[in-house]
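Recap from last week: sequence in, structure out.
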Amino acid sequence: MATHYQGSEEEIRALGAYVKLVRAAESVTARAGRYIEEAGLTGSQFGALEALYHLGPLNQTEIARKLLKSGGNITLVIDNLEKRELVLRRRDEEDRRVLTVHLTDQGHRMIRELFPRHAAAIAEEMSALTIAEQEDLGRLCRKVGLGRSDL
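Predicted structure tokens:
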């Protein structure tokens, strides 16, 4: 969709690229995320489970940083995962102020079964691009995401 904005050529070009980037990401996420939705999880809940699965126990600040979410949002995400008995919070033995989030056995089973299907769905979605195009896309997204042109 072309923009109706009457800005400079630079702004119009940047807006067009941005809209295409966001639409592509949302479209792929919707199609590849069906297993997440079928499991009754939000994207943030899946992201938290995935981080805990691959990285081990983390505190909520670390999870928020990994998922690019606010601390308040992650608190709600962890609260809801805890209600479903997928995670539990434990006080650190050395510093009682610190709460570490751990997968429960049920949470571990869920993400262990769900993640391979999700990874396969992502691979299928990305197969629309050649290997070189996937590498270029990854590099360009990283460059835009970091806001730097010297990568």
